[in-house]
Amino acid sequence: MAAVDSFQLLYREIARSCSCYVETLALVGACYTVSKAVIFIRDCYSLIRLHFIPRLVSHRDLSQQYGQWALVCGASEAIAKAYAEELARHGICLILISSDITNLADTAKAISDTYGVEAILIEADFSQGPSASKPIKDAISSKDIGFIVNSLDGSLDLSQDFTDLSESVVWDTINRNIVAATLVTRLALPTMVERGKGAVVNISAGHCLCPTSRKAAVCASTAFLDNFSRSLHYEYGHRGVFVQSLLPFRVSSRGSEGYGPAGWLVPSPQVYASHAFSTLGVSHRTTGYWPHTIQFRLVQCMPEWVWMLGSRVFTRAT
């Protein structure tokens, strides 16, 4: 009995001496909880402000705000093609650039007939060096270029070990994803800066946040486009040019029987482009689609080893 009384007395003494620390820890815990609640509320507000409110407001006169023509590089890509159609829907004329324009002729004609805008096709092979820029220079020389849209080449998104890639694939990755975006932007941006208005939209990919197993080259390309956009924003944003980095996650791809099954997590290119287009002029770096923004936040909170484990499983399966 004496031992029990001694233990209770010792416990009371320890509790009395540690009471100030308990109160301090409780205060720290409360502050942490409040800070997380504030961050959550802020993120919810940002989600609504970016992805929902712009879709409710009336459409702007984009040709007056930015310019009458759009230069779309990588126009054969599904997202770029859908984004170009959104521009045409708002009365913007198009200059579509691709390394192979045979599949774009019908698209250009359909856009022209549907929306009553001009659509010019330019075939440019950026592996040829400076000679690839001549037809682009000739096309934009007398145009009021208001938009530059550069898209990542999805056909190069291969799940292969880096040492298994052929030299031609490595060169194509550099030329189509890095050289093309850099050169096209360099050709058209000076007139935008001179006029004090314009928009540059670089369509990269959400997995630029973390390294991805068996996709070293294309993953590095996505990171380049994202950082290229952010650097241009700080360099020319104050001079009237809006620069946006679009970071979509998975979008439905086209197969032999049309586009694959789409859902709210994997939208069709048209649905994605419609949502992404509404963020133009609102956010400089966004996924462009609210379910992808939720994925983006989860990836940011995820330890890199967890992401790498998941990417290895996914790439091995594909």
TrEMBL record:
Q: Where in the cell is it found?
A: Mitochondrion
Q: Where is the signal peptide?
A: none
Which Gene3D superfamilies does the entry link to?
NAD(P)-binding Rossmann-like Domain (3.40.50.720)
| Primary localisation category | mitochondrion
Q: Does the keyword Mitochondrion apply?
A: yes
Q: Which residues are listed as membrane-spanning?
A: none
Q: Which keywords has UniProt assigned to this entry?
A: Mitochondrion, NADP
Recorded GO cellular component terms are: mitochondrion
Query: Keyword Mitochondrion on this protein?
Result: yes
Coiled coil feature spans: none
Member of which family?
Answer: Belongs to the short-chain dehydrogenases/reductases (SDR) family. 17-beta-HSD 3 subfamily.
Q: What is this protein called?
A: Hydroxysteroid dehydrogenase like 1
